[in-house]
């Protein structure tokens, strides 16, 4: 197999996005467009990947990381000029080079490999990915000869009225004989409406020299969708979301309503898990098998075991065990750890805390900077008072402890194994194992005194 290279064009600013964020950094299903392209290339067999950057070069470099070498295009003079920037790295080398756009995030590694294989098997000098559209306005047209072979590619702005009626469009993905590509790039002119050096003109030069140029029509039009504005961004998001959801359903996940389920490109979900409408799963979240999630739940970068139920809640950057029950209306904040069979109920907030197996905080509770052992019961309205205005302090609760309703545990404080904290207590000192702690004023009733307060009003 020949040596293969990939060049991704990502130098444009994207003025039609009307954004301070550079175009290729806009996200599709929770991941920047350029990352989608780079990650798909990474699944194919390429010796080296290059990204041509310009506007926002440092931000794009940071996003790409070590997965590709970035090359700066100081002036944006067209796609041919952009590819020419890689001449120092690739000029004169044998092999095959594929050129892709960083603002076309729906391309798959299967299609990338198919195009390169198609060119190499046919011993062609270039191959172009094409698609057929009902409304091709704005796209470069693929013009074929009478024999059906590729004659030229013409940009929409430069096309004649007859050429604009052609429905086969250039998808913007090319596979070239690398040595020949860089020999011809310097011969591309800019005599066109935009005054730019177009990469498709290399195809015209190859055809003129009677070189073998092929066109491979994809059956998956959505892979060719480019993003130049917010409308196209939303369309690409919709295509990507449908692809992601279909993949999970094929792997045994039930999505009650795929159209209202939003899963990130990098999440993983086990079989027999059921996702209800309005659920948003972000980042690298991992969800085990046999779970029930939603409706109207947001999960961000969490690891969730099997058999867990999350109902109408928000979970962030935390670890959740097996057979845990969360919600409705719970908030699991970052760096929390909830062990097997625990219960975090309605209107409970957990922040940077560890909840032991089978422990329960069923309702209206705040657990911040706390460590709970196993089989702990947290009564309704209990608060771990962890902040003094300057510093955060920890609360430790031992195995089998029972915390009564409306208790305040003023950290730093430790509640021993099996201890019992009476309802309504404000605990400021540690409680030994198996002890009963009561910290509340003795009740006093003053008969008829309410009449003196005169708080009643006459209707």
Automatic annotation (TrEMBL):
Mg(2+) binds at residues 103, 228. Transmembrane segments: none annotated. It catalyses: alpha-D-glucosamine 1-phosphate + acetyl-CoA = N-acetyl-alpha-D-glucosamine 1-phosphate + CoA + H(+); N-acetyl-alpha-D-glucosamine 1-phosphate + UTP + H(+) = UDP-N-acetyl-alpha-D-glucosamine + diphosphate. Residues 6-142 form the MobA-like NTP transferase domain. GO terms for cellular component: cytoplasm; membrane. Residues 252-459 are annotated as: N-acetyltransferase. CDD domains: GT2_GlmU_N_bac, LbH_GlmU_C. GO terms for biological process: cell morphogenesis; cell wall organization; lipid A biosynthetic process; peptidoglycan biosynthetic process; regulation of cell shape; UDP-N-acetylglucosamine biosynthetic process. Pfam families: Hexapep, NTP_transf_3. GO terms for molecular function: glucosamine-1-phosphate N-acetyltransferase activity; magnesium ion binding; UDP-N-acetylglucosamine diphosphorylase activity. InterPro entries: Bifunctional_GlmU, GlmU-like, GlmU_C_LbH, Hexapep, Hexapep_transf_CS, MobA-like_NTP_Trfase, Nucleotide-diphossugar_trans, Trimer_LpxA-like_sf. Binds 1 Mg(2+) ion per subunit. It is an enzyme of class 2 (transferase). Pathway: Nucleotide-sugar biosynthesis; UDP-N-acetyl-alpha-D-glucosamine biosynthesis; N-acetyl-alpha-D-glucosamine 1-phosphate from alpha-D-glucosamine 6-phosphate (route II): step 2/2; Nucleotide-sugar biosynthesis; UDP-N-acetyl-alpha-D-glucosamine biosynthesis; UDP-N-acetyl-alpha-D-glucosamine from N-acetyl-alpha-D-glucosamine 1-phosphate: step 1/1; Bacterial outer membrane biogenesis; LPS lipid A biosynthesis. Its cofactor is Mg(2+). Residues 1-230 are annotated as: Pyrophosphorylase. Keywords: Acyltransferase, Cell shape, Cell wall biogenesis/degradation, Cytoplasm, Magnesium, Metal-binding, Multifunctional enzyme, Nucleotidyltransferase, Peptidoglycan synthesis, Repeat, Transferase. Its EC number is 2.7.7.23, 2.3.1.157. The active site is at residue 363. It is found in: Cytoplasm. UDP-N-acetyl-alpha-D-glucosamine binds at residues 9-12, 23, 73, 78-79, 140, 155, 170, 228, 333, 351, 366, 377. HAMAP family: GlmU. In the N-terminal section; belongs to the N-acetylglucosamine-1-phosphate uridyltransferase family. In the C-terminal section; belongs to the transferase hexapeptide repeat family. Catalyzes the last two sequential reactions in the de novo biosynthetic pathway for UDP-N-acetylglucosamine (UDP-GlcNAc). The C-terminal domain catalyzes the transfer of acetyl group from acetyl coenzyme A to glucosamine-1-phosphate (GlcN-1-P) to produce N-acetylglucosamine-1-phosphate (GlcNAc-1-P), which is converted into UDP-GlcNAc by the transfer of uridine 5-monophosphate (from uridine 5-triphosphate), a reaction catalyzed by the N-terminal domain. This is Bifunctional protein GlmU. It comes from Sporolactobacillus shoreae. The gene is glmU.
């Amino acid at each position: 197999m020949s040596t293969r290279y990939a060049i991704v064009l990502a130098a444009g600013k994207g003025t039609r996005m009307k954004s301070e964020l550079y175009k290729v950094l806009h996200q599709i299903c929770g991941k920047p467009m350029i990352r989608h392209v780079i990650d798909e290339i990474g699944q194919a067999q390429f010796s080296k990947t290059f990204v041509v950057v310009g506007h926002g070069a440092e931000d794009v470099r940071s996003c790409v990381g070590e997965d590709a070498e970035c090359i700066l295009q100081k002036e944006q003079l067209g796609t041919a000029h952009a590819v020419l920037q890689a001449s120092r790295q690739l000029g004169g080398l044998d092999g095959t080079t594929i050129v892709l756009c960083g603002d076309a995030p729906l391309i798959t590694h299967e299609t990338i490999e198919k195009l390169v294989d198609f060119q190499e098997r046919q011993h062609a000098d270039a191959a172009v990915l094409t698609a057929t559209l009902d409304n091709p306005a704005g796209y470069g047209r693929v013009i074929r000869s009478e024999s059906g072979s590729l004659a030229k590619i013409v940009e929409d702005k430069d096309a004649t009225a007859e050429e604009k009626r052609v429905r086969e469009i250039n998808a913007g993905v090319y596979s070239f004989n690398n040595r020949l590509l860089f020999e011809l790039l310097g011969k591309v002119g800019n005599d066109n409406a935009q005054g730019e050096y177009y990469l498709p003109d290399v195809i015209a030069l190859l055809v003129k020299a009677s070189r073998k140029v092929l066109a491979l029509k994809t059956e998956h039009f959505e892979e060719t969708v480019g993003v130049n504005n917010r409308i196209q961004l939303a369309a690409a998001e919709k295509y990507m979301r449908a692809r992601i959801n279909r993949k999970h359903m094929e792997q045994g996940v039930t999505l009650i309503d795929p159209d209202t389920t939003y899963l990130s490109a990098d999440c993983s979900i086990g079989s027999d898990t059921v996702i209800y409408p309005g659920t948003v799963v972000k980042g690298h979240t991992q969800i085990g098998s046999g779970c029930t999630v939603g409706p109207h739940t947001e999960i961000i970068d969490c690891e969730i075991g099997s058999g867990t139920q999350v109902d109408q809640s928000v979970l962030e950057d935390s670890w959740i065990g097996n057979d845990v029950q969360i919600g409705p209306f719970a908030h699991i904040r970052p760096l929390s750890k909830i062990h097997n069979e625990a219960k975090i109920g309605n209107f409970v907030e957990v922040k940077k805390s560890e909840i032991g197996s089978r422990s329960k905080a069923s309702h209206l509770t705040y657990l911040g900077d706390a460590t709970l052992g196993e089989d702990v019961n947290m009564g309704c309205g209990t608060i771990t008072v962890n902040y003094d205005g300057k510093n955060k302090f920890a609360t430790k609760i031992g195995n089998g402890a029972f915390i009564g309703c409306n208790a305040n545990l003023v950290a730093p404080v430790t509640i021993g194994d099996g201890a019992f904290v009476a309802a309504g207590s404000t605990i400021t000192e540690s409680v030994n194992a198996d002890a009963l702690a009561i910290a509340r004023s003795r009740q006093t009733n003053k008969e008829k005194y309410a009449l003196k307060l005169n708080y009643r009003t006459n209707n």
